[in-house]
Write a structure and sequence with these properties.
- It is a single chain.
- By secondary structure, the protein is an alpha+beta fold.
- Helix content is 13%, strand content 29%.
- The protein has helices at 183-212, 214-217, 282-288; strands at residues 12-16, 21-22, 27-32, 40-45, 57-60, 69-77, 80-83, 87-89, 91-92, 99-103, 108-109, 114-119, 127-132, 140-141, 144-147, 156-164, 167-175, 177-178, 295-298, 320-323.
- The strands form 7 sheets. Strands 4, 6, 7 and 8 form a 4-stranded antiparallel sheet that branches. Strands 14-13-16-17 form a 4-stranded antiparallel sheet, with no helix packed on it. A 3-stranded antiparallel sheet has the order 1-3-5, with no helix packed on it.
- The chain starts with 11 loop residues before the first strand and ends with a strand.
Length: 324
């Protein structure tokens, strides 16, 4: 006599090995249910939409930490379907290579406070121990290692050991502490900075003054007076009979020997003058008097008739310059 048809009963899930599951080991999941006709099975992982396998067993040849999670199966036949309870798979593994950090991350100055941090991925969670190279006893235990009021003697290599029941892993960190400047050095640096600043200010003032007064350093040729050694000759009708004192000369104009002659258009009769250079007596006058030379003009009109040399210019003017 055959048993009556029946829908699948609640499936059961078994895991082999039943002991702790370690990374790299082989793991087998089995789903079973009482049903008539016999049920078909499908494996699922929570938070994964698609089914993993349509078989009674789900096998891991070398399980990974990423395979950890909750698994369940379904059993179904023509009369119905049942889902099993979820079974948690926890893969154990030793600590991965730890990562270390220093806070603050900038240059470590003597007297400051520094915190070293070590972290590693492990299952079960890793424990941490801090050591300094060439020292047997540990410096600290825990995720963080803080050094308050750090000194230059704290410089050196530190390493963090992350460990759990499955293994251990360590990483080394180099710590360098910069000595703080003594008070005397700070004062010296401040003094040098102040001196350099004052020198820059003085240079700026000098260049500004030089830029505002260029004529003091380079006289403009147009500023020279053109009245030096100028002899003004006028007609007898305008001449007063007095000799005007010429303006004084500077030493740099002492070598100049020239005359400026102005003609009067009101004079109708030609006047003749003889001009004699005063250069031959310059040396003697220079020795007798270091002041500027003066010249006097003696006028000696010589009237000529209009009939004489009509082709000559009636406005000709000649003068004789005598040294005083």
């Amino acid at each position: 006599m055959f048993p009556p048809p029946d829908a699948p009963k609640l499936p059961s899930v078994s895991v082999s090995p039943s002991a702790e599951i370690v990374e790299g080991s082989s793991v087998n999941l089995t789903c079973s249910s009482d049903a008539n006709p016999a049920a078909s099975y499908t494996w699922y992982k929570e938070d994964v939409i698609n089914p993993l396998r349509d078989q009674k067993q789900h096998f891991f040849s070398s399980i990974l930490p990423s395979d950890s999670g909750k698994y369940y199966c379904t059993a179904d036949n023509d009369l119905g379907q049942k889902r099993s309870e979820s079974r948690n798979i926890d893969v154990k593994y030793p600590p991965k290579l730890p990562s270390v950090s220093v806070s603050p991350s900038a240059e470590i100055v003597e007297g400051s406070s520094v915190t070293l941090t070590c972290s590693s991925d492990a299952n079960p969670a890793a424990k941490y121990t801090w050591y300094k190279e060439d020292e047997d006893s540990p410096k600290a235990s825990g995720h963080n290692f803080t050094i308050s009021n750090i000194r230059p003697e704290h410089s050196g290599s530190y390493y963090c050991v992350a460990h759990n029941s499955r293994g251990r892993h360590n990483v080394t960190l180099q710590l360098t502490v910069r000595e703080d400047f003594p008070q005397a050095a700070k004062l010296a640096v401040t003094g040098i900075t102040l001196v350099v600043f004052l020198v820059i200010i003085c240079l700026l003032v000098f260049f500004l003054l030089a830029k505002k007064k260029p004529s003091a350093l380079f006289p403009v040729p147009g500023n020279r007076r053109d009245n030096n050694n100028k002899v003004s000759c006028t007609s007898p009708s305008q001449h007063t009979g007095k000799t005007e004192s010429p303006p004084s000369h500077s030493e740099e104009d002492e070598e100049l020997n020239y005359a400026s002659v102005r003609f009067s258009t009101n004079q109708t009769d030609p006047i003749y003058y003889n001009i004699r250079s005063a250069g031959s007596r310059r040396q003697k006058v220079k020795e007798e008097d270091e002041h500027v030379e003066y010249a006097a003009v003696n006028f000696s009109p010589a009237l000529r008739t209009v009939h004489q040399d009509s082709e000559e210019d009636l406005s000709e003017l000649y003068s004789t310059v005598k040294k005083i």
